[in-house]
Design goal:
The complex is a heterodimer of chains A (160) and B (352).
Chain A: E1 2-12, E2 20-25, E3 28-34, E4 38-43, E5 47-55, E6 63-65, E7 71-74, E8 76-84, E9 87-88, E10 96-100, E11 103-106, E12 110-111, E13 115-123, H1 125-137, H2 143-157
Antiparallel strand pairs in A: 1-4, 1-8, 2-3, 2-5, 5-13, 6-7, 8-9, 8-12, 10-11, 10-13
Chain B: H1 5-20, H2 40-47, H3 60-67, H4 80-93, E1 98-101, E2 108-112, H5 115-125, E3 130-133, H6 139-148, E4 152-154, E5 164-169, H7 182-192, E6 195-199, E7 211-214, E8 220-226, E9 239-243, H8 250-256, H9 262-274, H10 279-295, E10 298-299, E11 305-307, E12 332-334, H11 336-340, H12 342-348
Parallel strand pairs in B: 1-7, 3-4, 3-5, 5-6, 6-8
Antiparallel strand pairs in B: 2-9, 8-9, 10-11, 11-12
Helix pairs in contact in B: 1-2, 4-9
Classes of the chains: A alpha+beta (160), B alpha/beta (352).
């Protein structure tokens, strides 16, 4: 099982209404409910995976504007950090997009309009992080070798 | 036998994974190989220097003995540095492995707070001279000389002259063997009246039975020993310099003033009284042979060292040296972490 830790911030209610989300891994629900500072869930992963966080209860009435047209209250929140199997994916969180009715926004962690945050990643996540970082920066040619030493040693110690 | 770098790397990772989760038999004592967090990045970074130091074997029996020493009592003993200095000479002389010709002439013992103190005093006393050293010598010398703007040169970069002073670790720091040019270096120092300091810091861990050296050469003015590569007391800084005549440098003046570090002298004296100088060599020689055979490394004459090809580019690639640009000891493997963590390595399946 892969463990996911979602960290949210700037969670804004409108009156008594709180933002609700559904979190899906490969289209299977792993969480449904209120947005909290931290949500932990588990799912089976292997190879290529799709993570989706859907903002499910936002409507036009949840954005309150004054007579000048300025937004004075809004149902929204932000994804702050994503930790998979105890590894903070850090900047790779920005390799995602926000799909909403009006289109797609790359690298958007703000949940304003109704829509879904989507991140595609590979499992094991450490391997994916090292590989992706090297592909982006070309600065870690030994990533695979070192990853293999680490996992071999870890498996031996933990008899896997 | 071919070097098994795969296994060497895996063991380095295994030791650091175990360190991060507090599962080592004997934990490390330096921050450069203790992962501060249990994550890949930290474990990876620290795994690169698992075998890189020259430090002593953290033998469980010695560690337990040291823990029980009441060092504070020595603060009240004004004669402890003298006792330490006198006992040290006897302790070295008692070892049948060493045949020092002329050692008895080196009767002036001077307690030093680690090898670095006796080196610093050597630098200070010879500050107008040029320092000479073999490639692969302890990098700390060059790092200090560079930063203090002192003149120095590798021995193979030019002839030794009368304006030179020379330091040679014996056994040699890089190879764990007597330096192949030691005899020639002594001859040149003698010929040019260049002072030579022989540093025997690794000698107690010598595995060979018959170490012979003639200390009667006039150029050999000082010889030095430290306990930091022999016993896990490296952070107590316990060392000594011997000379034929008293050398009135800061280290000696402090000792004459009776202000030596009495805690270190007391710990050093008790450890020497309890353990023979070749305790580690006797106890771990078979382990050295075992691990060299398993990993395809070459045993050196120092029990906790092996030599081989670098297992990581770290330590040997420009910009990736350990601590200093002058540190090229990346072909020397400190096997201590393997000896110390035998139970863990057996459990993990690495001890064949």
């Amino acid at each position: 099982m892969t463990r996911f830790e979602f960290h949210f911030k700037n969670i804004n209610n409108v009156g008594a209404k709180v933002p609700l989300i559904e979190i899906r891994i490969n289209d299977s629900n792993i969480y449904k409910g209120q947005v909290k500072d931290q949500i932990v869930a588990e799912a089976m992963t292997s190879g290529e995976n799709k993570l989706e966080i859907a903002f499910v209860n936002k409507s036009n009435r949840d954005t309150i504007v004054n007579t000048q047209g300025d937004i004075v209250n809004d149902l929204n929140f932000e994804l702050d950090r994503l930790v998979i199997d105890n590894i903070d994916i850090e900047h790779l969180i920005w390799d995602s997009h926000y799909q909403h009715v009006g289109g797609k926004i790359d690298g958007c962690l703000f949940f304003g309009p109704p829509g879904s945050f989507i991140l595609e990643f590979e499992a094991p996540v450490l391997r994916w992080i090292l590989k992706t970082n090297h592909e982006k920066n070309n600065n870690d040619p030994e990533w695979e070798e070192d990853y293999n030493y680490y996992t071999e040693a870890w498996n031996k110690i933990h008899k896997k | 036998m071919e070097q098994d770098s795969q296994k060497i790397n895996e063991i380095a990772y295994a030791l650091m994974i175990a360190s991060a989760s507090n599962e080592l038999d004997i934990p490390g004592e330096y921050i450069w190989n203790i992962p501060e967090k249990n994550n890949f990045a930290e474990i990876r970074a620290k795994s690169r220097s698992v075998f890189s130091s020259g430090n002593s074997i953290k033998d469980k029996q010695v560690l337990e003995f040291i823990q029980d020493i009441d060092a504070v009592q020595y603060l009240k003993d004004p004669w402890i540095s003298k006792k330490f200095e006198e006992y040290f000479h006897k302790w070295v002389s008692a070892c049948t492995r060493f045949n020092f010709k002329g050692f008895d002439e080196f009767k002036e013992g001077c307690f030093a707070q680690g090898s670095q103190e006796y080196f610093l005093n050597f630098y200070l006393r010879n500050r107008t001279k040029r320092f000479r050293i073999h490639r692969g010598e302890y990098w700390w010398h060059m790092e200090v000389w560079k930063n203090l703007g002192m003149e120095w040169k590798y021995i193979d970069d030019g002839d030794i002259t009368s304006n030179d002073v020379v330091i040679v670790s014996t056994p040699f720091a890089l190879t764990g063997k007597i330096h192949r040019d030691l005899e020639h270096t002594i001859t040149l120092c003698e010929k040019h009246n260049a002072e030579l300091m022989l540093d025997f810091i690794y000698l107690p861990n010598l595995t060979s039975e018959n170490f012979e050296i003639d200390l009667n050469h006039e150029c050999i003015k000082t010889i030095s020993f430290s306990l930091s590569k022999t016993f896990p007391v490296q952070n107590a800084k316990i060392a000594i310099r011997f000379s034929r005549k008293k050398i009135n440098d800061p280290m000696q003046i402090s000792n004459d003033e009776n202000v030596a570090n009495r805690l270190s002298c007391g710990i050093g004296l008790e450890v020497m009284q309890r353990f023979e100088i070749d305790y580690m060599a006797k106890k771990y020689h078979s382990q050295q042979i075992h691990w060299c055979s398993v990993l395809g490394l070459n045993p050196t004459d120092v029990v906790h060292f092996a030599s081989g090809a670098p297992y990581t580019r770290f330590g040997r690639t420009a910009g990736h040296e350990f601590f200093s640009e002058f540190n090229d000891q990346h072909t020397r493997y400190n096997l201590g972490p393997l000896f110390e963590n035998a139970n863990f390595l057996k459990k993990a399946g690495y001890y064949e």
